[in-house]
Amino acid sequence: MIYDLLAPFYDKFNGDVDYSAWADFIEKIIEKNYGMGKPELVLDLGCGTGSMTLELAKRGYDMTGIDYSCEMLDIARNRAYSEGFGDKILWLMQDMREFELYGTVDAVVCCLDGINHLTGQKDLDRTLDLVHNYLIPNGLFIFDINGKYKFENIYADESYVMENDGAVCIWQNYYNARTKLCDFYITLFCEDDDGRYERYDEVQRERMYTLRSIKSALSRNSLEFIGAYSDFDFNEASDGNERIYIVARCKKEGDLYGEQ
Fold first, then answer.
1. Between the CA of residue 88 and those of 50, 62, 72, 111, 239, what are the distances in Å?
2. Per the CATH hierarchy, to which homologous superfamily does domain 2-147+209-250 belong?
3. Closest Cα to residue 117, out of 101, 97, 133?
4. For a FRET experiment, which of 69, 88, 119, 258 has its CA 20 to 30 Å from that of 76?
5. Tens of pLDDT along 200-216?
6. For the chain, which ranges sit under pLDDT 70?
7. Are the CB atoms for 64 and 39 separated by under 8 Å?
8. Comparing 2-147+209-250 with 150-207, is the CATH topology the same?
9. Domain ranges of the chain
10. For residues 224 and 11, what is the distance between their CA atoms, to the nearest angstrom?
11. Which residue spans within the chain are E strands per DSSP?
């Protein structure tokens, strides 16, 4: 799996992501919408190398991180130990479409377009149904997606190259506006101990979801849409934004927000 190979370089390739500011934004969302004091149990779905998991753990949340990549989780676990959170975060290697928890959580976060990796409606619904199942009544689901603008104008049919010490990542994008699917043909060159480079090739796929389709999917799975924002200042988002931050609330029969 390409993410196992990318794991040692993942954070450097995403060095422009300000996880601290993003975590501050998540806390503001919680303050505005949770309504039951500060939540304790939070799930980071598709946690990768644990950057957001650790940021939220530092703010006092009891964190669980789920990812499908063993190598990503190894890095996350080692970082947690090095920062004093080794025994305070539960790491689970699971598919987000089939994850299982030991009980409910107060909030779920899913960062860096994990939802776009769910390329079929059944996969999206399966994941949202599990999010709903493991959230407490009125619990929050906070996630982001790459918007229509990014698929049509940044991904499109473009090629990109990222270089870092010991690795070169090249990908060619092919976006199908009819199916709303974007295929990423990824070539990764990794340096061996003897200075030679090994080549690895893989195809990844993301789906473009409009805000309307996301709202519909949330509704189908008893998750109440609260808002969509284009930035950390809570400006309202549209399909014209590159990245969209979305907040939903879990509705369960008989709870305050679920009553008709």
1. 13, 7, 18, 21, 38
2. Vaccinia Virus protein VP39 (3.40.50.150)
3. 97
4. 119
5. 888 889 999 999 999 99
6. 1-15, 254-260
7. no
8. no
9. 2-147+209-250, 150-207
10. 33
11. 41-45, 62-67, 90-93, 105-110, 135-146, 159-164, 167-176, 181-191, 197-207, 223-229, 243-250
* Total residues found in the chain within this entry: 260
Residue 13 confidence (pLDDT): 55
Tokens 């980071």 locate to 44
pLDDT of residue 194: 83
Residue 82 is encoded by which pair of tokens?
Answer: 């090095």
- Residue 39, token pair as written in the block: 């939540």
CA distances from 92 to 53, 70, 72 (A): 12, 9, 11
Q: Whole-prediction pTM value?
A: 0.90
Q: Which CATH class is domain 150-207?
A: mainly beta
